[in-house]
């Protein structure tokens, strides 16, 4: 991965465009992470209930009931819709971040390649594991959580390093 061209070498106009894109996609990623926490509490039981449903309808008060989405079983059409939307959008996010990050001069070598490739692998593992968890074995929830725990930091590192180089590294 030897480059003769880096993000720091870009004209300031394109740097601002890339910074705006990276900040916006970062906000979208953080919003997605907040939604995951909100709907699953980032626990194995919460993830399982989110996809397999829960009979526990006990809410402390009516406002909480109205504010939280019900934990209903995800049917085949729900699983297909979720998988299609997420795998497609995660692939697009990963390729765009990967292409931008490829041109950074801060992280090089195998670590750079790992950070670029890993989100694709985690996406495949996460959504394959969701299906297996939903229909066959609750234990796959741990693979879902580990793969997501690898994916999101990779994206955030690529965003942070790219913004750092665009803002602070000089030609």
Number of strands: 0
N-to-C CA distance: 19 Å
Q: In this structure, how is the largest beta sheet organized?
A: none
Element pattern in H and E: HHHHHH
Task: Report on this structure.
The protein has helices at residues 12-40, 44-52, 62-67, 76-102, 109-135, 141-168. It has 171 residues and is mainly α. It has six helices and no strands.
Task: Looking at this protein, list some descriptive labels.
171 residues, mainly alpha, elongated
Question: In short, what is this structure?
Answer:
The chain is mostly helical and 171 residues long.
Topology:
Elements: H1 12-40, H2 44-52, H3 62-67, H4 76-102, H5 109-135, H6 141-168
Helix pairs in contact: 1-6, 4-5, 4-6, 5-6
